[in-house]
Write a structure and sequence with these properties.
This protein is an alpha+beta fold. The chain folds into four domains: 2-77, no CATH class; 86-178; 183-254, no CATH class; 271-316. The protein is 48% helix and 17% strand. The protein contains seven helices and twelve strands. The strands form three sheets. The protein has a five-stranded mixed sheet, with helices on one face. The chain has a five-stranded antiparallel sheet with strand order 11-10-9-8-12, with no helix packed on it. Strands 6-7 form a two-stranded antiparallel sheet. It is flat, with a radius of gyration of 30 Å. 16% of the residues are buried.
């Protein structure tokens, strides 16, 4: 039987050609959680593979396991990427769909919890009132005991339903904030720094040369062949991502959502506001600001520029804060 592992930016990495009972389920289940079964698409897929470069290790592991089980496996890998703006728009749309689904689930769970509460109330009403004791040997004994059991079971179901409803509501609320958090100014700045660091690392792979520090220096040859092509492909996508997020950050600075401070803007003696507190600047570094500790003299700390919420020049510190 022939199967195909396909990767595109739009669909991510999926396994095509499986049918119920062909034995592929047992093979792919062993590769969980890197591969998961998607009920909505009725396919196995690699987690978080859309609009990312192919995860070759997971792809090769699946192909090897399936071939060992007797399947013919072909690979169809497209390493091209969609424009970052298009990918982000698609991500936001998927997140909106997920929020809608979670909200609907939360509503169903809330309705179930309400019904369980009402059932618990009715069951409790059937228990003889005023703490009436069970009459041992009386014809009412069995009915009395059973009414207590039913009330306890109903109360347990009500508590469980309420707990599930609260959990569903929390998940829906968290999901609704995901896109906003992704565009938080601090998150955006940190993402740019991370992407640029990864880009420099890949450039070193392409260039080759010395790595490490004495006496643990090793010489690496420039990447070549298929591996080089993979590195170039992911660098091309990352360069597009960097350009996109830099544009987002520039707009955030223009809109006043963040200060966009650099070493040129902050001097020794200035004050910066971080997480609601003001700190005196000891030194302005390339990526961070060294500030005086508010609790222990001589124990200075560093703060990334993107986390600074307000800035006051040393000459303005005697003036009241605006």
């Amino acid at each position: 039987m022939s199967l195909t592992i396909t990767h595109t930016a739009e669909t991510g990495t999926v396994l095509d050609g499986t049918v119920r009972g062909d034995g592929s389920y047992e093979v792919m289940k062993a590769l969980w959680p890197n591969w998961k079964w998607g009920r909505s698409i009725q396919q196995w897929y690699i987690v978080s593979s859309r609009d990312r470069q192919p995860k070759d290790y997971y792809i090769d592991a699946a192909a090897k396991a399936l071939r060992a089980a007797g399947f013919d496996v072909e690979l169809s890998i497209d390493r091209s990427h969609r424009p970052a703006a298009e990918a982000e728009a698609a991500r936001a749309e998927r997140q909106e769909d997920r929020v809608d689904a979670l909200n609907a689930k939360a509503d169903r769970r809330a309705a179930k919890a309400t019904a369980a509460h009402e059932a618990s109330r009715r069951a409790a009403y059937r228990v003889p009132p005023m703490g009436e004791p069970i009459k041992i040997g009386h014809h009412s004994e069995h009915r009395h005991r059973r009414s207590i059991e039913k009330a306890q079971e109903a109360a347990s179901r009500s508590v469980a339903a309420d707990r599930e409803a609260n959990l569903a509501a929390q998940r829906a609320d968290a999901a609704s904030r995901t896109t906003a958090h992704r565009h938080n100014p601090v998150t955006v700045a940190n993402r740019i720094d991370k992407l640029e660091a990864e880009q420099r690392g890949d450039q070193r792979i392409l260039d080759g040369g010395e790595r490490g520090r004495p006496p643990y220096v090793t010489i690496h040859a420039p990447a070549s062949g298929e591996y080089r092509e993979k590195v170039i492909a992911r660098m091309a996508q990352r360069a597009d991502d960097i350009e996109h997020w830099k544009a987002v950050r520039a707009q955030q600075i223009a809109d006043g959502e963040t200060l966009g401070l650099t070493k040129a803007d902050v001097k020794k003696g200035d004050a910066v506001k971080v997480r609601g507190d003001w700190y005196r600047v000891v030194r302005a570094n390339a990526k961070t600001v060294t500030v005086e500790s508010r609790f222990m003299a001589g124990h200075d700390g560093t703060v990334p520029y993107q986390e600074i919420r307000a800035h006051r020049k040393a000459a303005d510190l005697d003036k009241p804060e605006a």
